[in-house]
Amino acid sequence: MSSRVCYSYSQTASCRFGSQCRFAHDEGFEVANDSNRRETMHERSQTYAQTPLDTFFATFPKFEYDSSASAPLEFYRMCDEFGWNRENRGDRENREREQASRDFKDALVKQFNDIYGTDVNDLTSWRTLCQIVHVSPIPDTLESCREAVKATHVNIVDLVDTKTTGEPVTVFVSEVDLSQYTITTGKFFPRDNAYAGGLLRYLLRRIINPRRERVSRSGNKMQSRRRRR
């Protein structure tokens, strides 16, 4: 059994896997009565508990999940090991992959929420994002933080991965470069997910069909305006 604490158990004191869970069900999470020493289960679980992605991969005990690797790359590796081929549409393996894909997307969104929060008006969350995407100096106001983050082109999966892989988030010079990177790596972040908070919805951008770059007479690249839909 892993020494890491089960995320579900740490949050709700219950786990659908029971004694078969790969992660520890720590009975020691208690809330002190003394307000000066109060430590909530949630606060401690942020350091020690199983994450939403851990919870997802734990449902596939035959797969050796590497929590220090990129989450979508681990998902693709698992699909390969289980023989979940997209071309075999309609068979049992494909249905299993589709269900796993939906569950994985939910876990990815929940993981983002756990790391950065869900409140689009929370200054702390925006300042954290500024730090992650290498904005310097970090602005002091909400509006300035928003503008700084909006001016960057980053892959949202990378924003999640960086907390576990330790790899810095790459900032791209254009949406076109970001789109190419996303397609090449397969790091697609789910859109319109039911678990997406306000902050995440604000960040999600069009990366499959980015604004096309055109070249001006001076030879400089320019991004054309998207047609309204």
Describe the structure.
- With 229 residues, the protein is mostly helical.
- The chain contains ten helices and two strands.
- The protein has helices at residues 7-12, 41-48, 52-58, 71-82, 92-116, 123-132, 142-150, 156-165, 175-185, 198-203, and strands at residues 213-215, 221-223.
- Strands 1-2 form a two-stranded antiparallel ribbon.
- Strand 1 and strand 2 form a beta hairpin.
- The chain is globular.
- Residues 29-48, 206-210 and 213-229 have low confidence and may be disordered.
Uncertain runs: 29-48, 206-210, 213-229
What is the alpha-carbon Rg in Å?
20 Å
Helix content: 40-55%
- Beta-sheet strand percentage? under 5%
Give the termini separation. 52 Å
Reported for the largest beta sheet, the result is: 2 strands, antiparallel
Number of strands: 2
Number of helices: 10
- What form results from the Cα inertia axes? globular
Structural class: mainly alpha
Mean pLDDT comes to 78
Give me the side-by-side strand order of the main sheet: 1-2
The run of helices and strands is HHHHHHHHHHEE
Q: Main traits of this protein?
A:
about 230 residues, 10 helices, 2 strands, about 45% helix, globular, disordered C terminus
At a glance:
By secondary structure, the protein is an all-alpha fold. The chain has helices at residues 7-12, 41-48, 52-58, 71-82, 92-116, 123-132, 142-150, 156-165, 175-185, 198-203; strands at residues 213-215, 221-223. It is built from ten helices and two strands, in the order ααααααααααββ.
